[in-house]
Description:
Oligomer: single chain
Order of helices and strands: HHHHHHHHHEEEH
Helix content: 40-55%
Shape: elongated
CATH topology of the largest domain: Ribonuclease iii, N-terminal Endonuclease Domain, Chain A
Radius of gyration: 21 Å
Number of strands: 3
CATH superfamily of the largest domain: Ribonuclease III domain
Strand order of the largest sheet: 1-2-3
Amino acid sequence: MTKPGDSGRKTPDLARLEAKLGHVFANRSLLDTALTHMSAESSRLGSYQRLEFLGDRVLGLSVADMLFERYPQAEEGDMSRRLADLVRKETCAEVALGWDIGSFLKLGDGEILGGARKNKAILADACESIIGAVFIDGGYAAARGLVERAFGERLLKPVRPLRDAKTALQEWAQGKGYQTPTYTERGRSGPDHAPLFRVAARIAGLIDAEAEGRSKRLAEQAAAEAFLRREGLWNETMGDDNG
């Protein structure tokens, strides 16, 4: 049965992509699925979504493993910052561009016309789905080898400096594909001339983090910092320009 977007199109040479990846699939149907956008399938289960879910976790573990090995003196917070920077969607999209994944993607006609082969969100998802496919096909060692080849050079680059806590939280949320953080006042106490505000930092799908401050602005910064601390992405040296 002809799928949307398949009509009259030549099948890409997957061996060329395998050469870029440095992995020859024992089960090439896994690679085919990893390149299939939901727009090219009548069922979501035929697309790369499940492999993307798996690949996201394998990528995180592989990068954490590499960081632990490469930086034996690094503290948890420093490694967490590097991890967040390396697994963000923008980085995955850059890796996908290096693999030239766009030319191999199976897309529906509407997505093709909309420029999906260069869409960074789709490229990032496909990067993760390929990592998941390699994990299933060859095990953790093969997947980690793929991640090391693709992300290893980035591992050695200086981590991007974080600024104030609210900016840092927003950058982290965007990098992980979450919605932009919002801040909600949960209460206030103290006298009118010196109120104490309690604010919650909120990201849809995650647990709120609350903190207090002598102004709404300070309370929001404190709540963002509390959120980052909980995720292991903040330490004392990062707060110099906070406030």
